[in-house]
């Protein structure tokens, strides 16, 4: 029997109690589960929490692993799974199925994880750095920031590019030199 797959590419942030946050991208969804691609090496049976753009946060268990791909089965009742299936199929139909561009800059997790974030209106608060690259940073924040908003991350001007559960992805107005991105870097 052939399994029908719905190709849908959505960025995801995944984690569990034993593994720090890592990024993945959905590849497709089927009755087998959600197929992801990630540079993290995972194990069958591992439980994950995944925050998937446009879908939300899901609890899942890894059912298959093949190289840098894994299939996760979502935990939940029939109504939850039916609603998720509808969401994924709708998103798959809405996408033009062009793959996302390959990231030009390597991401790292710096030792300095707390950084001051300042809005254009001067409001300042602390953010938690998940990871940083020469071109941007992923931050956990407790404040609403609109996509397109100009902010300061430490001393770097940036623009809010995307939202994820409890955080934002921002692009620096002027990227760091790639050699300046290392664990001991500061903002």
Automatic annotation (TrEMBL):
Domain PilZ: residue ranges: 102-174
Pfam families assigned to the protein according to its UniProt record, in alphabetical order: PilZ (PF07238)
MF GO annotations: cyclic-di-GMP binding
Stated name of the protein: Type IV pilus assembly PilZ
Organism from which the protein derives: Methylobacterium oryzae CBMB20
């Amino acid at each position: 029997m052939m399994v029908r797959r719905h190709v849908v590419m959505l960025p995801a942030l995944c984690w569990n109690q034993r593994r720090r946050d890592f990024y993945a991208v959905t590849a497709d969804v089927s009755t087998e589960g959600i197929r992801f691609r990630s540079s993290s090496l995972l194990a069958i049976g591992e439980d994950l929490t995944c925050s998937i753009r446009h879908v939300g946060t899901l609890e899942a268990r890894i059912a298959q692993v093949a190289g840098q791909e894994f299939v996760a089965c979502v935990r939940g009742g029939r109504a939850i799974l039916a609603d998720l299936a509808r969401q994924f199929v709708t998103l798959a139909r809405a996408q033009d199925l062009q793959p996302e561009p390959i990231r030009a800059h390597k991401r790292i997790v710096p030792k300095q994880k707390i950084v001051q974030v300042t809005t254009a209106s001067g409001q300042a608060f602390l953010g938690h750095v998940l990871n940083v690259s020469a071109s941007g940073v992923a931050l956990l924040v407790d404040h609403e920031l609109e996509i397109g908003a100009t902010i300061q991350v430490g001393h770097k001007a940036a623009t809010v590019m995307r939202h994820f559960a409890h955080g934002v992805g921002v692009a620096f107005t002027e990227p760091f030199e790639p050699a300046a991105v290392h664990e001991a870097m500061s903002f």
